[in-house]
Write a structure and sequence with these properties.
The protein has helices at residues 15-32, 76-86, 127-148, 161-174, 180-193, 196-208, 248-257, 271-282, 290-304, 309-312, 315-332; strands at residues 37-43, 53-61, 64-72, 96-100, 110-114, 211-212, 221-224, 234-237, 244-245. The protein is α+β, with helices and mostly antiparallel strands. Strands 1-2-3-5-4 form a five-stranded antiparallel beta sheet. Strand 2 and strand 3 form a beta hairpin. The longest helix is centred in the middle third of the chain and has 22 residues, at 127-148. It is globular.
């Protein structure tokens, strides 16, 4: 096999690169699907992220003619996780109609997935749909180890928090960030607790020996309709490209972080508490100190927010992150 064309292996592909590649390989894709795939319509929506090209299409098999979604190229983790979980009938992830790891003679993974109606939950979240997302997350955590195996202890990523927090203080010094002195004081509190608190969290992640979705939030959740022929109705978690060995707490606090400063958009839904309840109702274990571990994660992520002002620099979000940081540090006694 050869690498994908157009130099895509050497740099991050642009949207034009990917669209061109997709159209170039469309005949090979149709051939790989043995005539079951037809009517490819390439698109890019306002909620789509990542480097894959996507298309709506039709799929015909023994179950009849159905709408599908095509993604290519797909990263190795998304390909592996989506395919493995699709084999479990109760997994809250998209069903796979066809998949491959080469196309047209190139080493290039692709997926043909069930097409879910509507838009991601983030468009109009409600307490009911957010509770459904929490239950789907618990199902994902319960089934991921069966599908992907138990991750080895050395598979867990280690974060360089000290360097990240130094970068955060540098950004505070070099930019006009509101409440810069409060930020600096709180970041120092976290730095004084390093590496002990980060090591404690990492040890808990390894002990959990599980998998995290990696990008859990309403923008990556959709509903399968009651009349779907693909599986049971309910919440489906999409975009599995960030699945990694990790802890449910990383998913929970990562979800919460997106709404720092805009908590009202969650209609009273508390991500960490709701996801803990969902784990308990699913019969999954909770660490005895899960609340403290969640606060450690909050403190680390919030303290790091000024390090990425291009992504986290919205004043409302920064204000919410600072409040979260102060409260987490107080509860932890840092």
């Amino acid at each position: 096999m050869t690498a994908p064309p157009s130099g895509l292996e050497e740099r991050t592909p642009s949207e034009g690169d990917v669209a061109s590649l997709a159209r170039q390989l469309a005949p090979a894709l149709l051939e790989a699907c043995d005539g079951k795939l037809s009517d490819l319509r390439w698109f890019r929506s306002d909620w789509q992220r990542g480097g894959a090209a996507t298309a709506y299409a039709r799929w015909r098999d023994d179950a009849g003619s159905r709408d599908v979604l095509v993604k290519l190229p797909v990263g190795p983790m998304e390909h592996r996780a989506t395919l493995a979980l699709s084999h479990l009938s109760d997994a809250p992830t998209p069903r796979v109609a066809a998949a491959g790891d080469e196309l047209g003679g190139y080493d290039l993974a692709w997926l043909v997935l069930e097409r879910l109606d509507g838009e991601p939950m983030a468009k109009a979240p409600t307490k009911k749909t957010l509770d459904a997302l929490a239950q789907a997350a618990a199902s994902f955590w319960a089934l991921a180890r069966d599908a992907l195996g138990e991750p080895a202890p050395d598979a867990f990523e280690r974060n360089g928090w000290q360097a990240t927090l130094e970068a955060a203080r540098t950004r505070l010094r070099d930019n006009a960030v509101p409440d810069a002195q409060r930020w600096n004081n709180e970041i120092k509190r976290v730095q004084r607790a390093l590496p002990a608190v980060a090591d404690r969290f990492d040890e808990a992640r390894v002990a959990e020996a599980s998998w995290r979705h990696g990008d859990l939030h309403p923008g990556n959740a959709m509903l399968r309709s009651e009349d779907s022929s693909w599986g049971e109705p309910g919440c489906v978690l999409i975009d599995l490209g960030e699945v990694r060995p990790g802890s449910w707490i990383e998913d929970a606090v990562g979800f919460e972080r997106l709404y720092w400063g805009r908590e009202e958009k969650l209609h009273g839904f508390k991500p960490v508490k709701a996801l803990a309840r969902a784990r308990k109702s699913r019969g999954l274990p909770l660490q005895d100190d899960w609340r403290e571990l969640a606060d450690i994660r909050r403190a680390l992520l919030a303290a790091a927010a000024p390090a990425s002002l291009s992504r986290n620099g919205d004043p409302q979000h920064l204000a919410g992150a600072l409040r979260t940081l102060e409260q987490a540090c107080d509860r932890l006694g840092l």
